[in-house]
Amino acid sequence: VSPKLWVRSKFPRDVVVRSELTAAGSAGDGYSLPELKVVSKARGACFYVVTAFAAVFLFMLMMVGHPLVLLFDRYRRKFHHFIAKVWASLTVAPFFKIEFEGLENLPHPDTPAVYVSNHQSFLDIYTLLTLGRSFKFISKTGIFLYPIIGWAMFFLGVIPLKRMDSRSQLDCLKRCMDLIKKGASVFFFPEGTRSKDGKLGTFKKGAFSVAAKTNAPVVPITLIGTGQIMPAGKEGIVNVGSVKVVIHKPLDGKDPDLLCKEARKTIASVLTQS
Predict the structure, then answer these.
(1) How many domains does the chain fold into?
(2) Is 71 part of a structural domain of the chain?
(3) Residue 215 sits in a domain of what CATH number?
(4) Distance CA 123, CA 238 (A)
(5) pTM for this one?
(6) Is residue 5 part of a domain?
(7) Which segments of the chain are extended strands (E)?
(8) Where in this chain does the record put each Phospholipid/glycerol acyltransferase domain (predicted)?
(9) Which domain covers residue 226, as residue numbers?
(10) Residue 264 lies in a domain
(11) CB 124 within 8 A of CB 117
(12) What is the per-residue pLDDT across 224-274, written as a single tens digit (0 to 9) for each?
């Protein structure tokens, strides 16, 4: 028997895994594989407790202010988005740090724009809300039925979408164009769904058609790290890690295909380096 194999066999498997993780510089340095799973699940449970607790109290403020928002700021709804920013910030602060790069590239808050980003995790929405921009998301209609969260989305003016329904998709794009013409901004995940492996998927052209037809600038954003902290399909865990948000310079143009290719290339350039 090889001496190296004999020495390795003396150690339990979890110790070997821990050594390999430490050598790789993982966020879980010093923990065995079973310990990492337990810690991540515990952090996940705490994450949902914190977000639910914060949502209940902040939703009351949103509900009280809603009549005035409809009266004075029906389309942008800045007050509601400020509350959403506070909610997202309070939720993520105990669990991971967000680093921003390129904040100077953000358009003026009153400038309607089309924001686009890669999509890796459930945490992407929380991360983007901390930017403090009052853009309208697009979400599945079923989520609006969730207590508190769904109701808050309705107050925010989130745009409902029925997947696999071409008529709903068309109505959604028309509503986005109408909002931009009235001074609001909209946000798209052009991939359409979360990436399972972290690789950037194919972009759909809906967001860029909206931008081209309304002459609104396209603001590409690269999200790095959310997929490692809460992988797609594993929303019950929160791993240790950090998130980086890179805001790129706005793109202008009237050709949806060209805007789509340029935005994807811009986002991919930073995502590949990471």
Answers:
(1) 1
(2) yes
(3) 3.40.1130
(4) 10
(5) 0.84
(6) no
(7) 97-101, 114-117, 135-136, 138-140, 159-161, 185-188, 218-224, 242-247
(8) 113-226
(9) 36-272
(10) yes
(11) yes
(12) 999 999 999 899 999 999 999 999 999 999 999 999 999 999 999 998 776
